Hints:
The protein is of the alpha/beta class.
Amino acid sequence: MHTPLLDQPPDKTQQCISMQVLLFGGTGGCGSQALVRLLQRGIEVTVIVRSEVRIPDSVKGHKLLTVVLAPGGHLCMDRSELMELLRPCSHVISCLGHRLTFKGMCGSPRTLCTDTVRLICELTQQLGPASPLRLIVVNTEGCDRLDGADPRRGCGERLLLSCLWCCLPPHRDNVGVMHYLSRKASSNSAIEFCAVRPSDMIDDEGCEFTLHETLQNGIFNAGTTRRANVGAFMADLVTKSNLWETWKNKFPHILDVVVSPLAERKFK
């Protein structure tokens, strides 16, 4: 059981390490939640955005926040510029996703998430950091681990996911991230990663949540995951060294702990 805290400082082990985070997707649902929490915990964050408009008002102008504007998107930036942004960082968080519009799902870049992960890994390998860069990625419960550890899905669910892979570029992109992390990043000595797999995401205040090495349900019986909980877990991965050691190079499934109204009445 995990309870998210907003203003929790880094543990003593992490305080010995100079921490700086490069954040992609920092204006989205999960990314903005992670951004606010990291700044509250005294972590320096550099966020790459197309526009400053959607940055949470509560952190605009924060002394620990550096905003890099990339109107054409970070994939259009010069690789040397990205490398310089990456150089001082101990962590990278990618909360990128595709907008739920026709252009967002079917337009360019179709492999935004996969291309970003690949770019980060390649640039980090070129930099050759003294300690492995810690890469945190938001993925989805619609993607299976390649080692077969996840429970086998039913025929209907496998058929639906196959159709989504063929017809829906964002799903194919998420699968591409899983494949790249499993086959390429896992053998890259300059990188350690954690790919967080939420269930159906909702906007609500943070609550207790659970973390699992394998999927606990499928898309037909999906639970819920609050974006606030995803942001809190990612911030904890940055600031808690023992938590990182538990989940590095893994694909945790994160689920809200939901208390039924009947149970709440019993506790009152």
